């Protein structure tokens, strides 16, 4: 007999975005350049010397000017929460200056005003793949210990300014992607193939210390703040039942879980120290660093899009399309148009794994299907009949419900790209996730007009019934 799925009272339903993927206005309001402004091809392409007109992020979906209209649409769906990021280079245009840019702070004040007006709880990412470019070019990003101080000043500024209005904060988006996408994730300007592991692991350490310091500062400056880490989750299955493949799974897991382990336990786990020893890496870890790391998070947030498989057999190690974390494709699963393997059950598995391991409330802050949408006219109204998106989200939410029944403490769920925005990995607009279609195309053409998709009404009903309609 199956049990009826019920979501907890006060479950935070909503959607998520990131500044660099939707705001546009890349050079307005005193904003400095960020690494994204020179990444017209996403993760795959090389960076450019300067911003180029083919970079869709420079205009994004013009949310900087249309945020009130967009938030009103989120409110119409009944959003309880909205996850957005603050563009670091709007607040500190270069990143290493002493005083913040008031115009940048004022923009987020106005955005928070709109959320308050509609009773939507903000969920703020402090750093979402948008390190100020100056920090990348002058310090080589997180390879340099001084980044901790710059981030600390930035985080303190945000807590002081917005701490009374924002409860939920995330320190770094997908912090565990640093080794895989050093420029986008860590502002590391040195090309990836010229970086050694010693440098990358030291950069990881700097970010972990910075994250913990932010938590420490929040405790003092914004005592009501709830601080979360944010990791890219990637459940992994053995390609075969052999112990060797099970061990490959353990190793793959360890390489991802170490970030959450440090954030929740306040120290490096033994398996990670062994990895460092065997690689001959000696991290510079000061006594102050150790003390800082002990400031652990209140909750763990994560993105979930797909699972992978792992194998110990070198002949079977083929890489999956669109998967920056490694792993091999799972022959039992279908994939999205971009090769991301669709696995709703994996979400239940990862929720249980994280809960069992960390015993911290969990927040799913990204999940969704990137797909090509077709704008059509139904009864004289322009819309997208996105049944594929509804099916994807419905199947995943049913698994969240199952995890709740398993006893997992889940705070909320925000779909990725609740309004169409520019893709992080490929920098396209045609990879759409939203409930709201935005008329802008990969060649930059389009009116930027917004249209409600079929999934808009579906999600409205899910929220209205607190998940009972699933
Ligand atoms: C996550 C990122 O990795 O996945 C987002 O935090 C990103 O910034 C999302 O947009 C979806 O990826 P993509 O490449 O389809 O935009």
From TrEMBL:
A Gene Ontology molecular function term of the record: hydrolase activity, acting on glycosyl bonds
Pfam families the UniProt entry points to: Glyco_hydro_1
Nucleotide-binding is among the record's keywords: no
Documented EC number(s): 3.2.1.-
PROSITE patterns: GLYCOSYL_HYDROL_F1_1, GLYCOSYL_HYDROL_F1_2
Keywords: Glycosidase, Hydrolase
List of catalytic residues: 366 (nucleophile)
UniProt superkingdom: Bacteria
Recorded family membership: Belongs to the glycosyl hydrolase 1 family.
Name listed for the protein in its UniProt record: Glycoside hydrolase family 1 protein
């Amino acid at each position: 007999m199956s049990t009826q799925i019920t979501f907890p009272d006060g479950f935070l339903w909503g959607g998520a975005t990131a500044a660099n993927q939707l705001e546009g206005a890349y050079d307005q309001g005193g904003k400095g350049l960020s690494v994204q402004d020179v990444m017209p091809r996403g993760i795959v392409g090389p960076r450019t010397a300067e911003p180029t007109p083919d970079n869709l992020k420079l205009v994004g979906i013009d949310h900087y000017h249309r945020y009130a209209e967009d938030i009103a649409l989120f409110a119409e769906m009944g959003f309880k929460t909205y996850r957005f990021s603050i563009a670091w280079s709007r607040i500190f245009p270069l990143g290493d200056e002493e005083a913040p840019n008031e115009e940048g702070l004022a923009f987020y004040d106005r955005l928070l005003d709109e959320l308050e007006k509609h009773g939507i709880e903000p969920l703020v990412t402090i750093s979402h793949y948008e390190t100020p470019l100056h920090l990348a070019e002058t310090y080589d990003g997180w390879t340099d210990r001084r980044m901790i101080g710059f981030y600390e000043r930035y985080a303190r500024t945000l807590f002081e300014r917005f701490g009374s209005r924002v409860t939920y904060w995330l320190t770094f988006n997908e912090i565990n992607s640093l080794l895989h996408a050093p420029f986008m994730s860590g502002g590391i300007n040195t090309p990836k193939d010229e970086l050694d592991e010693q440098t990358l692991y030291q950069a990881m350490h700097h970010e972990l210390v910075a994250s913990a310091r932010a938590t420490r500062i929040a405790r003092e400056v914004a005592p009501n703040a709830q601080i979360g880490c944010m990791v890219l989750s990637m459940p992994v299955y053995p390609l075969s039942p052999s112990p060797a493949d099970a061990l490959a799974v353990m190793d793959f897991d360890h390489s991802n879980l170490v970030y959450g382990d440090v954030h929740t336990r306040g120290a490096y786990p033994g398996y990670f120290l062994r990895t460092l020893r065997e690689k001959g890496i000696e991290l510079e870890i000061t006594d102050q660093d150790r003390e800082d790391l002990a400031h652990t998070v209140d909750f763990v947030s994560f993105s979930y899009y797909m699972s992978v498989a792992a194998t110990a057999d070198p002949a079977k190690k083929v890489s999956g399309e669109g998967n920056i974390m490694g792993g091999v494709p799972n022959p039992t699963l279908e994939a999205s148009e971009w090769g991301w393997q669709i696995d709703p059950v994996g979400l239940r598995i990862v929720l249980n794994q994280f809960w069992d391991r960390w015993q911290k409330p969990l927040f799913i802050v990204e999940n969704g299907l990137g797909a090509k949408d077709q704008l059509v006219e139904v009864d004289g109204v322009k819309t997208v009949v996105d049944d594929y998106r509804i099916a994807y989200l419905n199947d995943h939410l049913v698994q969240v419900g199952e995890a709740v029944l398993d006893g997992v403490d889940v705070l909320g769920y925000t779909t990725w790209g609740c309004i169409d925005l520019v893709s992080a990995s490929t920098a396209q607009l045609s990879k759409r996730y939203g409930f709201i279609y935005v008329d802008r195309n990969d060649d930059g053409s389009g009116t930027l007009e917004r249209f409600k998709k079929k999934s808009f009404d579906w999600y409205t009903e899910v929220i209205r019934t607190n998940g009972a309609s699933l």
